[in-house]
Amino acid sequence: MAIITLTSDLGLRDHYVAAVKASILSQSPQAILVDISHEVRSFDLHAASFLIRNVWQQFPLGTVHVIGINPELTARTPHVAIHYLGHYFIGADNGIFALIFEQEPEEIFEITLPQGDDWTFPMKGVFATAAAHLSRGGAIEFLGQRVHSFNQALLPAPSLEGDLLKGHVEYIDHYGNVYCNISKSLFEQVRKKRRFNILYKRVGFAITKISNYYTDVVEGERLAMWSTGGRLMIAINGGTTMHGGGAAGLFGLEVDDVIRIEFYGDPNSEDDFQD
Amino acid sequence: MAIITLTSDLGLRDHYVAAVKASILSQSPQAILVDISHEVRSFDLHAASFLIRNVWQQFPLGTVHVIGINPELTARTPHVAIHYLGHYFIGADNGIFALIFEQEPEEIFEITLPQGDDWTFPMKGVFATAAAHLSRGGAIEFLGQRVHSFNQALLPAPSLEGDLLKGHVEYIDHYGNVYCNISKSLFEQVRKKRRFNILYKRVGFAITKISNYYTDVVEGERLAMWSTGGRLMIAINGGTTMHGGGAAGLFGLEVDDVIRIEFYGDPNSEDDFQD
Amino acid sequence: MAIITLTSDLGLRDHYVAAVKASILSQSPQAILVDISHEVRSFDLHAASFLIRNVWQQFPLGTVHVIGINPELTARTPHVAIHYLGHYFIGADNGIFALIFEQEPEEIFEITLPQGDDWTFPMKGVFATAAAHLSRGGAIEFLGQRVHSFNQALLPAPSLEGDLLKGHVEYIDHYGNVYCNISKSLFEQVRKKRRFNILYKRVGFAITKISNYYTDVVEGERLAMWSTGGRLMIAINGGTTMHGGGAAGLFGLEVDDVIRIEFYGDPNSEDDFQD
Hints:
The structure is a homotrimer.
Chain A: E1 3-8, H1 16-27, E2 32-37, H2 45-53, E3 64-68, E4 79-84, E5 87-92, H3 96-100, E6 107-111, H4 123-135, E7 144-147, E8 159-161, E9 164-172, E10 178-183, H5 184-191, E11 195-199, E12 210-211, E13 222-226, E14 231-236, H6 247-251, E15 258-264
Helix pairs in contact in A: 1-4
């Protein structure tokens, strides 16, 4: 029996998440439900896509991911079920899939199940029905009509200007850790073993090395490290939004702020940087 | 194996909910536990009853609903297990059942299980034991002594004064959506296809139609629609308490505030209202 | 299939808890996951140990408890799996086990599994792997190397000075209830049926009896009672941090504040105290 993950801005205070689970379990009693988050900032496609992007592949093949951000059915945002690298994704085609996928999906179906009484609450209605069906091993073809594309949305890419690599802040977590859209592979490719300064809003706080552990620096000190997803992260060892501020609070960083990396020195020279 | 739902004001920060789950799983290892909410406002019977009323029937027949609001056993609030429309409800008879049920339950039993060490924490004590028993298919008769009534509590009903239907705000969700105690069936029965103004605290913001979707109005605009439970809901398209305010914040609405609907024009005349 | 409990400061807003669950379920698809709390104050070993201490023993024998507080692997804080009174505990040996256990554990193993890509996120990495292994009935010996001690940490004990018993505040829950480190057995042993005053920060608010129920005092009144774990708790009947303040807020009590109990009168005299 497949796992079904749930991501939404429904919150945990009201009865909405329970209604979705009741609907799924009524149709697929053995389904294993895992919440990714129900506290995504309301209507924030980018935040939702960040969370799903960083976790979906860690679930087993065959997992069904239900996405309840801006799920309303409109002429421009049909409900779809997508088969992608052995997983299933269900949601409104409002651009979020373009923010999650890095290649073409195997199959895309526009869901044509009757909307029923729950048309204003698709997660409990057609998304739950489609997820229950897939979790029971049902064929994706039964959910609707095959289509061949989905709506595009731009995940802004880092840019390279000479020796300057420019990215931006993608997400700030509840510790105040700052996730950037610069991947380790791009960084190393541009860097060619040169020295570098990671620069951001707050002048005078450049970071000049990548740490392996938070504890590579003293408590309260800033650091950069690779997230488990392989993206650049700026953090404070022992800092949190509750304890006098994580990196985001201390440096005044917000989503979409620019992060610059200046490279200098001789390429491929040996230096004291430990990867 | 039956589903057991949990509703309480225990919160998610402390170990209390885990203690309840440990107790249930120790006695019914295969039980499927679903949280309705543990963030009900403390001691708020009305909020708890609103959540349960809107979700219990979406669970499969045989589901056991454990209610941990004001659960203390007193002479006036015995612990009871109730069989109602094929579901089971367990809690203290503090009036909440009168707020949930719309007709007479099949069976009511006063729980006479020994209170044990957990008498100050009934959800972990007798409620967990009773729920585990029922979830394993045990007979409700084994839980105690049959009784024939439960404590009454008043869920204030809407009133009709000539062409004016008066209800009140029952619940405000985390988006700031405002739920009223006016049902679609009552509304249509009074309306007789006439035009209407939905009026509330903030003068000059009457709503004159019922929308089917949030997106029937432009972003930031007010609307009325029927909730999935069939009650009148006042909302803002794209508004949330986090983004400059949902309907509750913008219009200063609070639980128990009056909502008035004035009907006018000729009954059963055709008009431009689209249902 | 064993239950796996999770305790951390990962929060519920980000994707971190889902990543841990994905990792466990990929390796042990039938595992039953129960969250103790993911809202422990960041880096707060004492708060985490309080929660686990009060709930672990309520789970069935064989349960695996994964502890994600300060989980980083350092030379002084090895990752360990511990067999204790029929349960398993997994975490970094940062002192937390000394705060949870009251006697010597059966077996301690230093985990020597390869750290893999998740070395910065041990809950998702080796902790998940070790927990999945144990939940499938795997032998603890396979996880690493047997060791014979763990790091000590001091859980400050109450002190007795003549007729004065001094303890401190261990934890404050989301209702504002104040948990002290004074056990019922110590209290009774010192008390010898004498009268007593429970004294704390706010002068003039001594408590002179132990209640059995919140409702033993009128609403809004202070009381002392024994927690389900048998520790002294100071509370307000019907008080919460959201409703004008629980006990912590009203009396200005914080973690580590001193609680004093003065005993007076004749030992073993009968009095009006009802236990």
